[in-house]
Amino acid sequence: MSKRLNKTIKWDKLDNTANLFPVIVSENVSNVYRISVTLTEDIDAELLQKALDKILPFFDVFNHKLKNGIFWYYFEANERPAPRVMPEDTYPCLYINPYTNNEYLFRVTYYQKRINLEVFHVLTDGNGALIFLKELTYQYLRYKYPELAEKAGNTLNADSSLDIEDSYKKNYIRPAKRSYKTEKAVILKGEKLPFNHFAILHGYIPVSEIKQAAAKYGVTINQYLLGTFTWAIYKEYLKGQPSKRPISTVVPVNLRPYFNSNTTKNFFAVVSAYFKPEKDTYTFEDVLHIIADSLKEQINKENLEKLLSYNVSNEVNFIIRAVPRVFKSIAMRRIYKASLKANTSTITNLGVVSVDDIYKEYIDRFHVVLSMSKGQFIKGSVISYKDTLVFTFSSAIRETFIQKEFFRQMVRDGIHVSIESNGVYYE
Fold it and tell me: What's residue 2's pLDDT?
């Protein structure tokens, strides 16, 4: 028997959230997101590849390929060389074909001073990806500037978690019988951009100014952003009229701080910023406080525990576990399609990024970009670094009236906003 056949192949289960993504992925619905870092000098592709080759073996979550099992999809260790670092020459967040990517489920590209990490959501969420991107950036900078290696050494950063715990199952508590009712939400429609064309609009916002504006209304920054987005849809898309359908925005919540977890796997739950315009007139402040109250009711330890356990309950159900994967996939697709009608959009906030002091002068900013999903043709993402918050709209619709009203409301609240686009709107 050959040495190859004697070798034990390392494998791992998908986490609870990850089970859905292989079932629904396609060329149209990539389930890929991008986190990027912009440095102060142009990227050296050779050094970036060297940095990726160096750190990848340490990150089991990224060092995986996806396999078909009888009952579930599963991960297997990928022993191929790291994927090739490539110059950016396509729109963001396109489908990752593992067969042209050494079977890896992420890619690294670069453009001028920017490093892009694009990740198939089956691997991890934005917080897990950010750990990987920061470590990749640190290693690249140490190769680029040898004096940094002398100061920091040439090992992984002490703050870089390599934890691969399944925090869903660790924190699972058998839930009381409960079902979650949904209703059809407002779906944003408009003139579609050509297939795989992707419009990006970045808004650069001083943290001090948005913090002051939010405090004026007695809400948090995240509540302010979601309230302003909901207001823009209400005013511009619904024209300030009552609607039988709510504006319901999906809000992913990082569960790590609630459950004392450092996992690099997916570990989040989703809640909804909910507003149903049932009367004739709402002011901006009305909408803002309705959204803030909606989020307060849902983003707390007690409710998040219930959501986590409810979501995991089907996975640990003995009868469901025994059902072959092909039938599970059919059922999951049906449930997913039904859920699409309940959501207007998604806004994710990765919070404040901190980097080690010795690297700060080399790192200018971070961005996050979300891909489209069925029924959601405008999405938003938030990330802050130093004194700037970046709100990014990704859109497959040519019209921009919602985005414009979103930023105009900020200007009315005394916030200075600068805008950057990828140019699709001008084509």
Answer: 35
